[in-house]
Amino acid sequence: MLFDLHCDTILKIYKDNSQLNKNDYHISTEKLVKANSLVQFFAMFVNMEQVDDAFVTCNEMIDVFEREIAKSDIIRKGTAPTDIADDHITAILTIEEGGVLKGELANLVHFYKRGVRSIVLTWNYQNEIGYPNYKYIHKDKGLKPFGIEVVKKMNQLGMLVDVSHLSDGGFYDCIKHSTKPIIASHSNARSVHDHPRNLTDEMILLLRDNGGVMGINFYSQFLDGSNFSKVSLIVKHIKYIRDLAGIDVIALGSDYDGIGCELEISDISKIHILKEALQKEGFSQVEIDKIFYQNALRVYQQVVTD
Ligand SMILES: [Zn+2]
Questions:
Q1: 90-125: buried (b, 16+ CB within 10 Å) or exposed (e) per residue?
Q2: Ligand 1 centroid to 121 CA: how many Å?
């Protein structure tokens, strides 16, 4: 089974007016079935510099998500951990860009009511919550006062705080202020490839101690800086993180349909290639199950209530 913490497929469907059931993207319902998917996070990614009103755009994207999910019974929208079951694929709404809240906690409650259960606090721009780690310009800047309020409110509502893209300083503030495990939905190890989107050893250990997980990102720029996403590189990051911090901090966050590089695992239906590569490297079935779905499920069950 598979629990993938990040994809941008809905943006493609929103822009192209295409379908989730069947398409040429990295993720479709058809491909998720082949992948034996249990849970797929669908990010509503809003580029703040390309839209007039980020709140409105985000709601339009959720409308598209709802429309597409309604077309099939194999994939169903889920919110509560009890919605997750192995007789169907559970699609979970997430947001990538906390700027859609426009600095209002009421908008956080609005999106919670629409079913959103996780938010990537920033993308590559500064917003009301905090600063991105983009090019390390704001590396050491922490959360803004509204960001600390957001973390507390997300804890209270039962939503996952997602620190991928966030400044290193913001990461430390989330660890400090969150009373529940947090996630880095699509980030790798900075010691394996030095990139601002990846986490340092210190951050990985803090995330482990916090009870959270990091979703391994398949984008080659975060694997080794090349344009070819090789399975061996994904395994290299996983091995490094396991040896550093143990198996329980590792999950998957493919970033499918948000990445433009050449991919050895060309779409999610081919995810068995990763499983086979891990087996070859001596990973046990217990370890593979933890990486593929159990660790992410554990955190989801701990943080989300309904
Ligand atoms: Zn992203």
A1: bbbbbbbbbbbbeeeeebbebbbebbbbbbbbbbbe
A2: 11
CA 66 – ligand 1 centroid, Å: 22
- Name residues whose C-beta falls within 8 Å of residue 99's C-beta, 6 or more positions apart in sequence: 46, 48, 54, 122, 123, 125, 127, 128, 129
Predicted confidence band at 120 (pLDDT cuts at 50, 70, 90)? Answer: very high
Distance (angstroms) between ligand 1 centre and the Cα of 282 equals 30
Going by C-beta distance under 8 Å and a sequence separation of 6 or more, which residues neighbour residue 284?
A: none
Q: How far apart are the first and last CA of the chain?
A: 22
pLDDT digits (tens, 9 = 90+) for 238-274: 999 999 999 999 999 999 999 999 999 999 999 999 9
Question: pTM value?
Answer: 0.98
- Closest by Cα among 148, 97, 149 to 119: 97
DSSP annotation of 142: -
Task: Compute the distance from residue 222 Cα to the ligand 1 centre, in Å.
Answer: 11
pLDDT, tens digit, 9 for 90 and up, residues 13-71: 999 999 999 999 999 999 999 999 999 999 999 999 999 999 999 999 999 999 999 99
What's the rounded Cα separation, in Å, for the pair 171 and 184? 9
- Residue 243 pLDDT: 98
- How far is the C-alpha of 219 from the C-alpha of 6, rounded, in Å? 12
For residues 234 and 231, give the distance between their C-alpha atoms in angstroms, rounded to a whole number: 5
